[in-house]
Known about the structure:
7-stranded mixed sheet; 2 domains; oxidoreductase activity, acting on paired donors, with incorporation or reduction of molecular oxygen, NAD(P)H as one donor, and incorporation of one atom of oxygen (chains A, B); 9-stranded mixed sheet
Amino acid sequence: MISKQNSDSLFRIQSRTFEILDSFGLDQVWRESTHVKEATFWDPDENGKIHRSSRVPNSMKGLSRFDCTGTIHQGVIESFLIQAIRASASVPSHPEVIIEGNITPSSLHIDETLIDDQDAYPVMVTLKHFDDASVVDAKSRGNIDESLHKTSFGDDDSKPKYLQNAQPGAEELVLAKYFVGCDGAHSWVRKALGQEFRLRGETTEAIWGAMDIIPVTDFPDIRVRSMVRSTSGGSLMMIPRENKLVRLYIQLTDGLSTNCLLTRSMVTPEMLIETAQRILSPYTIDFTYIHWWSAYQIVQRSGDHFDKQGRIFLAGDAVHTHSPKAGQGMNVSMQDTYNLGWKIGLACKGLVRPTAIIPTYDMERKLVAKELIAFDRKFSELLSMHSAKDISESSVELKQFFKKAPLFTTGIGVNYASSILTVVDDEAYGLAKYTVPGKRFASCQVTNHSDGRVWELHHRMPSDGRFRIMVFGGNIADAEQRFGVNTLGQWLGKTLIPRYPPINICPIVDRRLQTVRFQSELMTPIIEIFLVHTAPRDQIDVLRDVDSTYHPWHPKLGWDYDHIFTASRVATQDNIQLTQSVYRDYGIDEERGAVVLVRPDGYVGMVTSVAAKEARTKICNWFDSLLQGLDN
Amino acid sequence: MISKQNSDSLFRIQSRTFEILDSFGLDQVWRESTHVKEATFWDPDENGKIHRSSRVPNSMKGLSRFDCTGTIHQGVIESFLIQAIRASASVPSHPEVIIEGNITPSSLHIDETLIDDQDAYPVMVTLKHFDDASVVDAKSRGNIDESLHKTSFGDDDSKPKYLQNAQPGAEELVLAKYFVGCDGAHSWVRKALGQEFRLRGETTEAIWGAMDIIPVTDFPDIRVRSMVRSTSGGSLMMIPRENKLVRLYIQLTDGLSTNCLLTRSMVTPEMLIETAQRILSPYTIDFTYIHWWSAYQIVQRSGDHFDKQGRIFLAGDAVHTHSPKAGQGMNVSMQDTYNLGWKIGLACKGLVRPTAIIPTYDMERKLVAKELIAFDRKFSELLSMHSAKDISESSVELKQFFKKAPLFTTGIGVNYASSILTVVDDEAYGLAKYTVPGKRFASCQVTNHSDGRVWELHHRMPSDGRFRIMVFGGNIADAEQRFGVNTLGQWLGKTLIPRYPPINICPIVDRRLQTVRFQSELMTPIIEIFLVHTAPRDQIDVLRDVDSTYHPWHPKLGWDYDHIFTASRVATQDNIQLTQSVYRDYGIDEERGAVVLVRPDGYVGMVTSVAAKEARTKICNWFDSLLQGLDN
């Protein structure tokens, strides 16, 4: 994977990205980021003086347990990611992942004759090693693309260190099964793929500045996300970040006045703060510490192809660029590769059918990119109003837009279309009303049947490449319902699971889970099964009443106690259990239940019923279409 | 500080200990420990067959946000502590703390002529360095005390590595202001202090076994804390721990049958599991993996003196020993040194009056030790019933005892008596009904006035040696109330704070707080001031309405935004704020408020009123009695 460091050092992390990071055990990102809980709108009053016209939550209630944006330095996230990768590598028999820096590709080819051979390595890429000094040198000679951003490159303590694996100047030829270009807006990989991969869209003439300062100000909303539209100097948006810093986005020109001669290269930090002062007047703002600054034009473009022949892929800014103001860049980009990663990973391990699964990357993520561009265009337009009349007329529209925006900006609203991975089954309609194929499976709090501990379901479902069957078994205190759940369980354990080869997962992805496995037994089924029931705990002895597929036996470890949950936060009070079922949140019938098949990236693949015999056929067909069977 | 590693590798962490660890930023202990949420009682039925007679929460509702016991390996906690100490040492100008291993004291004296000189080093201790091999050697020759426990010393991956700072055999003389012996039940330091420091109490004859196994069993409550009293083989308690392990405490003899010839040295793991099998019958239990095992007699003893001349201290098992079954050992011991640490620390820095503060350690912790012994005696007695009649008769008593126990076992109920540190003021009675001097100041969720983020108040109050004044300002939207709060603020900022020298604290104790300080400005007031008000947020512009003591100005960092909170979890919904005041939890009037003075260890020192003039005199007198003034 070829990636490029972004010069913009602020990350605004959205709810779905927090969920994804958490699914790798990286919950420290949430704890250590600055939580941006609120947004305020400031508009001119009848005398042209700005005033707070509204204060709203910077998210939408109930979308995610990570209920707002978090801001954090890019270097901090990268350090966490590198630490996590290194920790995984310390597990015996787990392959080491090497992260190298100071590398650029210099040629890229596909051997067309090998495309259909899943064991072959059809991608040939030449990599060139250089040292830091030569980057600067090459830049000044124009050989390496300059960043879109003119930047001061502020001192950056958190910059992670990468491995330098070869002598500068050395070249190496790499043969690969798959190759991913995440090398930013000026992607070398995209250019190497040719004309048909060019991004299409528009560059606006409006110039904006961005700066990270520790503000010295009397503006009262400096620690919330504030959008200020003035008649005295244009628009400004502020985003509080960590360590007392605030990111300011400042409109410098509206791109409409034909007499404006400002170009990006003329922008200075003095110009930025003076414009901010004009916009915020009569409040004052200044700084003695500036961390970073930049000037940019808004470029809204995306590509028509996210992959070439299912072997070379583009992700992130390499295939969609837009303005930074909605805080989407890193989020949509990470979600691109999160969508792609498990597909390539399982294909490399020979566990899935690549021809079925790989094409879904382009299909699923291209639509998200199109939505992103449309969203960004509208948001930029609303923020860029410059006359009192326009501001006033668009005020209601901006607030309504902002109110609905979280469905998109949080990443929670993403809804992948019907495909081999996402089966919309008319007969299943209504079985799980709020658990829709194509959307991410939401997390609810459930109680471990055996120890009474409350867990977020997401915590039990780490991103380890496994599919999951969530059996919402309904009221298993009822004998008939229990029979159905046990019949299904027996079929899952005896018939379905043995059809597919097991997977070697890294057991320390998440220390919370305390997975115990003997070193000699590193393989585990590629489908993990959970039972979430609504019966009162004391009426069920799982060892006696529930099929062992839901609590597998191990001769050395005994029974498993980590896969059966009750659908409630149980407050045990002597013998009384106060329950509130999460079935309602999923839209599932508390007596009869439903079965939800979840993809390795946490999206709902299919919903079916617990008891119906044809449900088994449907489950089997779905997995057969995706997974390599043991008999292949 | 001389400490000794305990061979018992399981820690059962109670609520107050979690709060203390969290106050050092060590929240990972909570996340990575096994949460023991429930307890069940199993008694014989009329046919002598055991059955679950009750299931109860393993804590008490509302005591703490850490709402149950957590179990974790001792080595894991020690690693976290060492990491935290090392991280603190990486801060420029912060003193490095060195942790050395393989050291034992060989002589200890106090120079009586220097006791009253606060600048002198009256404690002289000779330390002897040895290597690991010589420990074993010395043990076999009986020169070093053997542990109370006969132990198998299971393999222990998590054992932290200590610095070996000198050649084995080397001796060094250390002159110290203060010296703490935390060297366990057979404390060398205690013996060196002489006859009057002997522990008093009793050793029972009953022999218990303890073992950590991965159980292979069909007992349904193996993952909760179960107390099983049988007529077929005695009593047993199980505590689930991490990585599928379960700790079993197994009664081997009741210490009453005079014909019993069993001694500790005869105990084997086979004997332990066979006894467990007999007690749990007709359920089965066995293991293939055993992590650790031991046999012990219950020794309930404590000392009459916790310090010698305010210079040498005993803490933990060195001054109180008891049975492990209530999971108190590590907790009460850590709370001993947590009580002592800030007192010695601030005395060494010359910031407090040692003669006032140091004696409170003995006073406060001795009473806790006495309670601990009494508690343990009763609990052991109830668990050790051996006849059907006794079990049946004590059944209700055991359950009632267990129901009230969390007040003591969690550590939350600790109530330090009135002293110079804990001022019970009759006039203040009723100002903060549930915020009592001598008890720990509870955490509630409050909302940052400036950014709307919800915080646990405890998160804003890390253990950094500072005192805190919590001004519950009431409804500052009311002009008169606001005037009172601002008058108090002005006095605090202009008169009180400047009386005392500032403190150099480590700014990275807790990364959540994102404290920003310039390296040239490492000193901060020893008293930190918070304002928690009940006014609607939009009615107060803190920069305009509130005295700057509550949001201090810094020429480079601007205003402070981290010390003013609203007393509610605010759910902003357009302009509507849904509030539920935490004033009710503290028992404080929502209009008029109260002032709570909090000690560096988080215990309430004093409560007084906001507006009354004599409140200022009381606050000033309290700090004057404890702190060194700048004019001294």
